[in-house]
């Protein structure tokens, strides 16, 4: 069975491009898709797919980041699936397809039965280590992309804050609530205070806020000598 695994972080994102790329590579691929944010492999649809896999099955990904953006977890899952005989295909990183890894293992230099074998054995181990390192680097790059994205987001928010811009949603739902008008007696003076409150604000909470405003106003208006 050939599967295509497509993942987006939020339902608002489009998954069409990934599916189109997978289908262009293999029209018969059965698409498994989900919206899941984060770097962990513990995802509902991925877990279901993993349980249904059989030796010889293939999973096609648009890129390695769709499988995992956690380097350690991604590499561990890659090795586990490889040992189970599952073929992994990464359209944007074909150099780490399991078939490429398998070719690296099978292309070991033959032994000669002489002392040269010590050198050949070292070369074979080096080639195997190099192939594994390429896989690790691919997953590490995917993890780095997430870290860089988070860093750019934090820097952007900080820049906006320093420039006095609103960060997050602006609350345009505030309104003047006539039933939140409060009278506060300050000596011989009665202050009537009303304010802007959210529609769902309770009268008790609004009254408390109004009293605070009244007190601040009264103190501000007192002659300096009386403060």
User: What is the helix tally?
Assistant: 7
Strand order of the largest sheet: 2-1-3-4
Shape by Cα distribution: globular
Based on helices, strands and strand pairing, what is the structural class? alpha/beta
CATH topology-level name of the largest domain: Rossmann fold
Helix content: 40-55%
Instruction: Compute the number of structural domains.
Output: 2
- Corresponding CATH architecture of the largest domain: 3-Layer(aba) Sandwich
Which ranges are low-confidence, i.e. pLDDT below 50, for 5 or more consecutive residues?
Answer: 173-201
DSSP strand count = 8
CATH superfamily of the largest domain: Resolvase, N-terminal catalytic domain
Secondary-structure element series: EHEHEHHEHHEEEEH
CATH class of the largest domain: Alpha Beta
Strand content: 15-25%
Chain-averaged pLDDT: 76
Q: What's the gyration radius in Å?
A: 31 Å
